[in-house]
């Protein structure tokens, strides 16, 4: 095994094999679909508000129920995926969220939207636990941040596709048909996933050299780690608090950015597509570069701790200019500021998502991701209620952007305090 790995590590990637990158492509596609389904209500917010007369707090409540279900689903799916594996766990999540997405076309009341958004949240909560689990199975630690950044970039592709496709579908067929059509087309992914995904040792496509490269890290404990033990580890809380503080900022951009462009810069369903596309294209670059940068530092001899935290510090500093987005009169200057913030968030997220696989054995990664995702969704719920109240009472995004610009530095300080060296968490039996 060691000899095989030495040959694999020194050989070009074409000799090692590339099956693991096919897996990343599947994860990328699923994440893109996930974000099309997730973002559509934000894109259609002005249309739905006009049709149903929603207030700002009504819309915030609908988002709240999505995030509540997402929080519950995240912690459940983290555990389920650790038990049944990424292949079937991802498939179950996909079926739930796609069905819920299509059901949006059948509801009219606030209660109906809250119900289908909650079901969507339960299904979509399985995306990242399954994706990180798959990356953990298919990549050694030194490549995981880059692989995570690549598949996480699917979020931005989904956010790019949505303003390009959904307005056209809505104007041609109505918003109800837009939900049904986008959901039906995405089922192609489910067929491809079930046909192609296997664990590395179960796959007939993986060469001996690539398998040796994938398994080059020291062996993890084989036993399942109890949740009580994970909850008692400060490393778990380093990840969870990081998610609690910073995930809500991404939710804010996802669900309220079209509304900001409408209210602050006078855009509408026909005109806010290009600014959104620019923002999420830049975000896509941030996701890939953020994962690549910390992986590159590790390849150059940096410790995992130094590489991850240096990258995250740069990201945190790049978000802070969003303080000024509300004050800028020029649309494209505002787009540039927000693009920098969203790109920095995605680069941050690529590294934050990698921390559980840096600190925990593979058997525990899905559960830790679930705990952190739940924390992030809880933070998002609170931030959504805050946003609704601020917009209802103040009518400006300034107080919202001030919070968004400050939380990353706070989160990084807490992560460093709880896990100063990103060492392996002691979760094995004595």
From TrEMBL:
Q: Where in the cell is it found?
A: Membrane
How does the UniProt record describe the way this protein sits in the membrane? Multi-pass membrane protein
The entry's keywords: Membrane, Transmembrane, Transmembrane helix
Quote the SUPFAM superfamilies the UniProt record gives.
Answer: MFS general substrate transporter
- Residues annotated as domain Major facilitator superfamily (MFS) profile: 23-423
Q: Which GO terms describe its molecular function?
A: hexuronate transmembrane transporter activity
Task: Please provide an example of a Pfam family that matches this protein in its UniProt record.
Answer: MFS_1
Q: Which CDD domains match?
A: MFS_ExuT_GudP_like
The keyword Transmembrane helix is annotated on this UniProt entry: yes
Transmembrane intervals: 19-36, 62-81, 173-196, 237-257, 277-298, 310-328, 334-353, 365-387, 399-418
Tell me which InterPro entries the record gives: MFS, MFS_dom, MFS_Na/Anion_cotransporter, MFS_trans_sf, Sugar_P_transporter
**What are the record's GO terms for cellular component?**
membrane
Q: What is this protein called?
A: MFS transporter
Organism of this sequence = Sphingomonas parva
């Amino acid at each position: 095994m060691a000899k095989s790995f030495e040959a694999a590590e020194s050989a070009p990637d074409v000799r090692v094999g590339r099956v693991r990158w096919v897996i990343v492509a599947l994860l990328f596609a699923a994440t893109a679909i996930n974000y099309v389904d997730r973002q559509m209500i934000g894109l259609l917010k002005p249309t739905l508000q006009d049709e149903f007369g929603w207030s700002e707090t009504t819309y915030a409540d609908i988002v709240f129920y999505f995030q509540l279900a997402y929080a519950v689903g995240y912690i459940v799916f983290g555990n389920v995926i650790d038990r049944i594996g990424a292949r079937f766990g991802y498939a179950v999540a996909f079926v739930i969220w796609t069905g819920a997405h299509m059901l949006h076309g059948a509801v009219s009341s606030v209660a109906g939207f809250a119900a289908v958004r909650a079901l969507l949240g339960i299904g979509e909560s399985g995306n990242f636990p399954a994706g990180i689990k798959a990356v953990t199975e298919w990549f050694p630690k030194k490549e995981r941040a880059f692989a995570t950044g690549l598949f996480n970039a699917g979020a931005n592709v989904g956010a790019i596709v949505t303003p390009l496709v959904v307005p056209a579908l809505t104007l041609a067929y109505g918003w109800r048909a837009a939900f049904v059509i986008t959901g039906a087309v995405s089922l192609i992914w489910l067929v491809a996933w079930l046909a192609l995904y296997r664990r590395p040792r179960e796959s007939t496509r993986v060469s001996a050299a690539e398998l040796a490269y994938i398994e080059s890290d020291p062996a993890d404990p084989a036993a399942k780690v109890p949740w009580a033990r994970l909850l008692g580890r400060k490393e778990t809380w380093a990840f969870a608090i990081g998610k609690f503080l910073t995930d809500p900022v991404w939710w804010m951009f996802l669900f309220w950015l079209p509304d900001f462009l409408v209210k602050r810069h006078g855009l509408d369903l026909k005109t806010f597509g290009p600014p959104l596309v620019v923002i999420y294209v830049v975000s896509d670059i941030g996701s890939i570069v953020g994962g690549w940068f910390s992986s590159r530092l590790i390849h150059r001899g940096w410790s995992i701790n130094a590489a991850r935290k240096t990258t995250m510090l740069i990201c945190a500093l790049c978000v802070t200019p969003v303080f000024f987005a509300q004050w800028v009169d020029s649309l494209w200057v505002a787009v540039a500021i927000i693009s920098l913030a969203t790109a920095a968030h995605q680069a941050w997220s690529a590294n934050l998502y990698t921390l559980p696989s840096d600190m925990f054995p593979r058997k525990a990664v899905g559960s830790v991701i679930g705990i952190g995702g739940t924390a992030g969704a809880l933070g998002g719920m609170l931030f959504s209620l805050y946003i609704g109240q601020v917009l209802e009472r103040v009518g400006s995004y300034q107080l919202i952007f001030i919070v968004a610009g400050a939380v990353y530095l706070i989160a990084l300080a807490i992560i460093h305090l709880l896990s100063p060296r990103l060492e392996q968490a002691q979760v094995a039996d004595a």
